[in-house]
Specification:
single chain, Quinone Oxidoreductase, Chain A, domain 1, Rossmann fold, seven-stranded mixed beta sheet, binds nicotinamide-adenine-dinucleotide, binds zinc ion, ADH-like_N, NAD(P)-bd_dom_sf
Length: 348
């Protein structure tokens, strides 16, 4: 079968012929219906080197995947060949306290995981191929009625990651509150939909690109702002001077983290999701009082089930553009150039 593989750090992926996987005991092979292209893949191609992460290339890209059960290893029960499924992406040890409650994104025994701190498309072979080998049936989540794998694929990361980030801040998002989404790309546009579907907060979306701001409006943003010098003032004046109860930064650069901290309301949340390499100096008077600042990584399996439910009911509908495996690199080029709207999904 064909697979889009990252051969080494700081290199371009290659479309190559590899063996079709066969499942060992407890394993599942998924026929890929859609594999989302994440900006993290661009970071993998350009920003990391040996020692940056606990694993290294080569591996097949694609860490947001959905499709159909293709083959079951010995002992797997509860799944049927042909059944539509999503792949839960962060692969933990399955046995530690975190994994037991489905939060494998924060596995506490990574040495016992299939790969420490990674998964398919992140150190092990992912979904940008005709088939993906999933090392345990618990990582395969049946799709609810009517949810197409091409839409389910981006929900496993571009949906799950903002869902986890927003869900933890629900108590700070009652009616009358304001949420700010910085960066309305693959994750951010679903983030706006999640805020709309699960909270009554007023949503302000911030991006550098007009097309992204138009997409934010389509997704339910109440107000859109061009990212720049004056954005903090605009957020403050839109909130009666108070600032935003929750700021979600899907860029994570110096400038956006500084903007997010300055635009937050006292006792608010600033959640950094983007891996843009930025940092934020925090001192007593440099951020509003009692603002909680956190990074978040992906989401839990129970949260994925909730996200898929929202997707199957039409409450979340990622804006997708599909590409063939042959054309996968043009998806990444468009993402890099800022000409992609929403999420690119590779359909092998
Ligand atoms: P994307 O390229 O689809 O979207 C990024 C968006 O940010 C674009 O719309 C771009 O115009 C906008 N942007 C860039 N600079 C900006 C600025 N200064 N101000 C406002 N907007 C700006 O990327 P994506 O796939 O949505 O991923 C976003 C980030 O999240 C990436 O860094 C990715 O690696 C990271 N990520 C993190 C997790 C996690 O678990 N923490 C999971 C997935 C992705
Ligand atoms: Zn990702
Ligand atoms: Zn674990």
């Amino acid at each position: 079968m064909r697979a889009l593989r990252l051969p080494a750090w700081k290199s371009e992926p290659e479309l190559v012929e590899v063996d079709e996987p066969t499942p060992g005991p407890g394993e599942v092979v998924v026929k890929i219906g859609g594999a989302g292209a994440c900006h993290s893949d661009l970071h993998l191609m350009h920003d990391f080197e040996a020692g940056s992460l606990p694993w290294n290339p080569p591996f097949t890209l694609g860490h947001e995947n959905a499709g159909w059960v293709h083959a079951l290893g010995a002992g797997v029960t509860g799944l049927e060949i042909g059944q539509p499924v999503a792949v839960y992406g962060p692969w933990g040890c399955g046995a530690c306290a975190r994994c037991r409650v489905g939060a494998e994104n924060y596995c506490e025994n990574p040495a016992a995981a299939p790969i420490p701190g990674g998964g398919g498309g992140l150190g092990l072979d992912g979904g940008m191929a005709e088939y993906e080998l999933v090392p345990d049936a618990r990582l395969v989540v049946p799709l609810p009625e009517g949810l197409d794998p091409v839409l389910a694929a981006p929900l496993t990361d571009a949906g799950l990651t903002p869902y986890h980030a927003i869900r933890r801040s629900w108590p700070k998002l009652p009616p009358g509150s304001t949420a700010v989404v910085i960066g309305v790309g693959g994750l951010g546009h679903v983030g706006v939909q999640i805020l709309k579907a699960t909270t009554a907060a007023r949503i302000i979306a911030v991006d550098t690109r007009d097309e992204a701001l138009r997409l934010a409006e389509e997704c339910g943003a109440d107000q859109t702002l061009r990212s720049g010098e004056g954005t903090v003032e605009e957020i403050r004046s839109a909130t009666g001077g108070r600032g935003a109860d929750v700021v979600l930064d899907f860029v994570g650069a110096d400038a956006t983290m500084k903007m997010g901290a300055a635009a937050a309301r006292t006792v608010g949340d600033l959640t950094i999701v983007g891996i843009g390499g930025g940092s934020l100096p925090v001192s007593f008077f440099s951020v509003p009082y009692e603002v909680s600042i956190q990074t978040t990584y992906w989401g839990s399996r129970p949260e994925l089930i909730e996200v898929l439910d929202l997707g199957s009911r039409g409450l979340l509908a990622p804006k997708t553009t599909t590409f063939s495996l042959d054309d996968a690199m043009s998806a990444y080029r468009q993402m890099q150039d800022g000409t992609l709207e929403g999420r690119a999904v590779i359909v092998p």
